[in-house]
Amino acid sequence: MVSVSYTHLDVYKRQAKLSSQREKSGERAAKKAEAGLGTTSKVESPKWRGNFPKEQVAAAQKNAEKLLATRIPVDALDDVLKNGLKTQFEDIRTQGGNSKGARDRTESFWGVPKDARPDQRPKYGFLADKKGLSKTSGYGQVLLNLELDPGQVSVTLGDSGSDVPSDVVSLKDFKEKEYDDLARYSNPRDDYIETQMRGNIGREQIKSVEFLPEAMATKADLNKLLDVADVANRAGLPLKVTQQPGDILEPAQNTQQRLSGVVEALKAKGLDIELTPLNEAVERFGTKLKSVTDLPSKALAPIYAEDAAKIPSQVEGFQKDIDQDTRFSKAKDCLLYTSRCV
């Protein structure tokens, strides 16, 4: 089989044609119903199939280009920065549904040719608003904030992996359409705004890298952060560290205290790294934190207090680990692996 080469503009033309055919089909059915011909069932305009409040959609429309992002696992960052983001048809690894057949059916509905080249199929991301961040945690702890040509991007309101496919709308049209006109692009699975991205997405399209830890209490957590910090800084990208807050205030504060010590130790190495304040992290992730005293049972309070008591020694241990880590040179002007430093 010969693979077909096409551009994202070709896909939008095919999609526009398919959408127009679906619209006309609905209009014809409505006219027949009015004339008493064929079906007499009432033809209704598309309705929202997911929970997308007007305020969420309006904010996303206003800030769409600033919110373009995707999430990847920690161990994929180096490869993505070197070789670019890959489609599921190029790389069998995926944090989403691993079914090329299902993905092919969905993309065919959008007008992507079945014999399209693997590298010319869409890559997937989302708009990183509160819903986007909270609903995509399973895709990885590394957030890539992207800067793309709007012509590369289309949108569905909801995860396109739904059994109920929806049309895609270009990012430009998404920003300009009225709320009711966007209903046809919605589906009922996961109430975040998915993006389909076409063309090259590599180092030049990545504005910044963000690491999103949840606990930061073990050496394994530290190693993940060090891997991300090392790879991002070797690529010349700033790194932001933002904890994903839990539901209870004191553990979140404990995590922030650990992170603060680690970030300061990495800054001392000359790395371009920044820690997001806890209140900003809470605002971005939309998590409502509660005090321990508000819990139905206070039995957990001593555990949290004991956890907090361990933080100073944990942070000190982390700082020693960083000093001894061969991923970083003590010379501020050398951010390569020690073995590669001249």
What does it look like?
- The chain has helices spanning 8-34, 54-63, 77-83, 100-109, 130-135, 171-176, 219-234, 249-267, 278-285, 301-324; strands spanning 68-72, 123-127, 142-146, 153-157, 169-170, 193-197, 206-211, 239-241, 273-275.
- The chain is globular.
- The longest helix is centred in the N-terminal third of the chain and has 27 residues, at 8-34.
- The termini are far apart.
- It folds into 2 domains: 8-203, no CATH class; 213-340, no CATH class.
- By secondary structure, the chain is of the alpha+beta class.
- It has a 9-stranded mixed beta sheet with strand order 5-4-6-2-1-3-7-8-9.
- Helix content is 39%, strand content 11%.
Total of helices: 10
| Beta strands, count | 9
The share of residues in extended strands comes to 5-15%
Helix- and strand-based class?
A: alpha+beta
Span between termini: 49 Å
Rg over alpha carbons: 24 Å
Characterize the main sheet.
Answer: 9 strands, mixed
| Secondary-structure element string | HHEHHEHEEEHEEHEHEHH
Mean of residue pLDDT values:
82
Q: How would you describe the shape?
A: globular
In helices, the fraction of residues equals: 25-40%
